[in-house]
Amino acid sequence: MSNFEVFFDYIQEISGKLLSEDDKRLLMAHFKPRKLRKRQYFLQEGDVCKYIGFIVKGSARTFTVDEKGHEHILKLSLENWWLADFESFYLLKPSRFNIEALEDLEVLQSTNAQIEEFLKQIPAFSAMANVISQNYTIANQKRMQAAMSYTAEERYEDLISNYPQFLQRFPQNMIASYLGLSPETLSRIRKNSFK
Amino acid sequence: MSNFEVFFDYIQEISGKLLSEDDKRLLMAHFKPRKLRKRQYFLQEGDVCKYIGFIVKGSARTFTVDEKGHEHILKLSLENWWLADFESFYLLKPSRFNIEALEDLEVLQSTNAQIEEFLKQIPAFSAMANVISQNYTIANQKRMQAAMSYTAEERYEDLISNYPQFLQRFPQNMIASYLGLSPETLSRIRKNSFK
DNA sequence: AAATGCACTTGATATAGGTCAATTCACGAT
DNA sequence: ATCGTGAATTGACCTATATCAAGTGCATTT
């Protein structure tokens, strides 16, 4: 299946609507395929996030670096997820985040101005945007609650049940950072839960 | 200014579009005013969040209670904010949250089905929804980053600069809980930063 | 096969922030 | 004015998690 077929299926499935041939032509004309090798950056801190990318293949992490040089992973992303720093993308502000490919990465990317066009012209695209926005809001609410009310161990168990794929796809130190833990602490948590 | 005038101004300002007289009639027909006294609940854990409320006056907190009986405040809300547990509201699932009035509260409320209608029929309403969704996404991203990378003191300073009104409107123990801190810790942080 | 480099583990120690208990403060109700 | 209640402060102590340092196991490169 080609990259665009994957993408079209995704839109139709999430939105519950069909794309016309015209819709598909429009999307193909303005979403550009882009490939990144592992370790390459989709976005660097300080740059404006001009593109939003739909991940067709591979994985990425969104992270900040604090004054002490410590990295904090905010988001881990896999196939069929969208990749962007939304604050920078919507407001055209320089980003405080880095987005780096953790595996070889293939995305379909487009600009904010184009997305506005798709929203106006393609009903399935706009329906998809609404569903995604709902899902994001819900996921954020959950994650925030987990961060505030759960212990390290509970957050790890939560991750296992909500995103079991993460354990296969991401190294443990990345998962630790995503959970807001040091790699040592995650290692000890795993040791204890196996006994 | 009446409740609805406040509401209409808000929609027009956020969306950048004007409401027609028909639009206004439609909104007035399906947003119901509701008043809650301080301490009353807008939503109780276990119930489905049937209504979304627009706060015209007053304030509220959204919180969970963990197994140890500790409360965790996820959201503090003031005038011109929306009040709902979106997970429960969108998915019609029983809520894990409580929403309680912290001051006497006046909201305009409506149901999910009605909101869908407004989105279809009122361009300004739908434009507003898009802007709000962007703002939420950005605010969530920021708050998550703060929770993961900042110390307690930095989070408090962040709050002071982003939401100075909170200090006037909410008691310190609520703010502590919102920041994920014990009241004692927040008290000590304030003491230190005054020296 | 040796060498290099990472991810992961393990142990010892440090620290931010939590918990518990006592005290003071503010204010609404009588 | 006084009482009562809940908020805020303060001190002593505790705990979860971070930090630092050393060691182990595996791939990848040479």
Automatic annotation (TrEMBL), chains A, B:
Pfam families: cNMP_binding (PF00027). Residues 34-121 form the Cyclic nucleotide-binding domain. InterPro entries: cNMP-bd_dom, cNMP-bd_dom_sf, RmlC-like_jellyroll. This is Crp/Fnr family transcriptional regulator. It comes from Mucilaginibacter pankratovii. SUPFAM superfamilies: cAMP-binding domain-like.
